[in-house]
TrEMBL record:
Domain of life of the source: Bacteria
Keywords on record: Membrane, Transmembrane, Transmembrane helix
InterPro entries, alphabetized: FLQE3_permease
Pfam hit, one: FLQE3_permease
Protein name: ABC transporter permease
Membrane-crossing residue ranges in chain numbering: 21-40, 46-70, 91-111, 117-143, 150-171, 191-221
Length: 233
């Protein structure tokens, strides 16, 4: 990790604190934790897995869009276009900072749910790859809008079809090839991490590869599109 990237990540955290994104999410996570602790065994593990998939794991999609809209309003991206910061560094800083927040939220939720420590790696892996994929997609969508409200409303038709394949996990048994779809694989790994259902080594392997390809592919495609806004450096 280069000093320039570290500086960008630190700046993103400052922006997120300045715009009260971190503070607001601390309150949300505290609410989730209170509900999980209060519900105890009454809250099924599949509900917690879906909660993580639909919120901490995908939160970067909405937060990234919000940050980009705020940057546009303050002409930050115009300054970035004139700087030596590359689209890859810009997107990497956003992906790392927002994914760290997502992972922190998931750790709190998992601990409140008394999740076994040995299940944490697969849960964190699924969260990280999901977060990176949706952050990257959020950046693509954000380029189409000029205001935060426009983004939040207009992004729904984009994100809904992307999340929808995760619902295939309701089918049991699900064919192995279905897990080639990243959303299906992402939720499956979270369900496995929370001991919901079973999965063979082949299923887990395909899910891991699918999650990785979704994150890497989305990131590479997005940083290529960002060259039109930040320049090719």
């Amino acid at each position: 990790m280069t000093p320039k990237l570290v500086a960008l990540i630190q700046n993103d955290f400052r922006l997120q604190w300045r715009y009260r994104i971190i503070a607001a999410y601390i309150v949300v996570v505290a609410l989730y934790a209170t509900i999980i602790i209060s519900a105890q065994d009454a809250l099924p593990n599949w509900a917690i897995a879906i909660l993580i998939y639909s919120d901490p794991a995908v939160l970067g999609f909405f937060f990234l869009g919000g940050l980009m809209m705020l940057e546009k309003g303050e002409n930050v991206r115009t300054a970035l276009a004139m700087s030596a910061i590359s689209p890859t560094q810009y997107l990497a800083a956003k992906s790392i900072s927002l994914t760290i927040i997502a992972l922190g939220a998931v750790v709190v939720i998992a601990l409140c749910a008394k999740t076994p420590i040995q299940a944490m790696p697969i849960i964190l892996f699924a969260t990280a790859t999901t977060s990176i994929m949706f952050i990257s997609i959020g950046a693509i969508v954000a380029l189409r809008f000029k205001t935060i409200n426009g983004y939040l409303i207009g992004s729904v038709p984009f994100v809904t079809p992307l999340i929808a394949p995760a619902a295939l996990n309701l089918i049991d048994p699900l064919p192995l090839y279905a897990f080639i779809l990243p959303p299906t694989a992402q939720l499956k790994l979270l369900l496995v991490g929370f001991s919901v259902g079973s999965a063979s080594l082949a299923v887990i392997t395909v899910c891991v590869l699918s999650c990785m390809s979704g994150a890497i592919g989305s990131f590479c495609f997005t940083q290529h599109l960002l060259k039109s806004e930040l320049g090719d450096k």
